[in-house]
Amino acid sequence: VGAPLRAYPVCAFTRASGITSLEQWMAAKTPPKLGGVSAGSSSPDHAIKVLKQALGVPAQLVSGYKGTAEIRLAAESGELAGSCWPWTSIRATWRKALEAGEVTIVLQAAPTPHPELAQVPLAINLARTDEARKMIQVAIHDASVAFYLWALPPGTPRDRVQTLRKALLDTFKDPAFLAEAEKAKLDIDPVTGPEIEKVLANLFTLEPALVARLKELLVQ
């Protein structure tokens, strides 16, 4: 049907980790510990694995946390250096630490900069090979478009699908809804059904070598 927003991940580090910029991260002599949830999680786990492989950022993924709330607590206690998950979530749940300078965003994995992170480098711009760019595009950018996917069961009549798609997009344009979202500091960046269909269809056209590489990287 569609999605309410594109959930592009960013990488956040605590001040205690000693990392406040991408340059410091890249220069880290010991790979910083970054929190994850499970092997099948697109964010943080997949994002960290892909960025490590595609860009060569030093990182030790520590998976098994029950969610980003536990990851934040582990980072604040010094157990972790940080992690990578959607900016909309980090901004809402880690706001006080961000405002106090206790947490810094050093990298964003989005096609274009978020307006609030204009000075934070984009991962895709740092990729040095076609394979690295494709990995970021497929496993992070495309996955982020359908991160909050709202779907219907197979076989749903086409007219019903179109009705619900229209209702969803109309909601995202409703002034009262947008006012409430702004009050709650929530981003609304709707993804249309056809756009999600295109992203999913493109997955079936990927080169076998890239599919095998991603499978090896993300399933382990």
Model description:
- By secondary structure, the chain is an alpha+beta fold.
- Helices cover 49% and strands 12% of the residues.
- It is built from 11 helices and 7 strands.
- The strands form 3 sheets. Strands 5-2-6 form a 3-stranded antiparallel beta sheet.
- α2 links the parallel β3 and β4 (60-62).
- α2 runs antiparallel to α7 (130-145).
- The longest helix is centred in the middle third of the chain and has 16 residues, at 130-145.
Average per-residue pLDDT, rounded, comes to 93
**Quick one: biggest sheet?**
3 strands, antiparallel
- Please compute the radius of gyration using only Cα atoms: 18 Å
The SS-based structural class is alpha+beta
Spatial order of strands in the largest sheet: 5-2-6
- The span between the termini is 31 Å
Q: Tell me the total number of β-strands.
A: 7
Helicity, as a percent range: 40-55%
Strand content: 5-15%
Tally the helices: what do you get?
11
The global form is globular
Q: What's the order of the H and E elements?
A: EEHEHEHEHHEHHHHEHH
Low-confidence regions: none
In short:
This protein has helices at 22-26, 42-55, 68-76, 87-93, 95-99, 123-126, 130-145, 158-173, 175-183, 193-203, 208-219, and strands spanning 2-3, 9-14, 33-35, 60-62, 82-86, 103-108, 191-192.
Itemize the secondary structure elements and their pairings.
Elements: E1 2-3, E2 9-14, H1 22-26, E3 33-35, H2 42-55, E4 60-62, H3 68-76, E5 82-86, H4 87-93, H5 95-99, E6 103-108, H6 123-126, H7 130-145, H8 158-173, H9 175-183, E7 191-192, H10 193-203, H11 208-219
Parallel strand pairs: 3-4
Antiparallel strand pairs: 1-7, 2-5, 2-6
Helix pairs in contact: 2-7
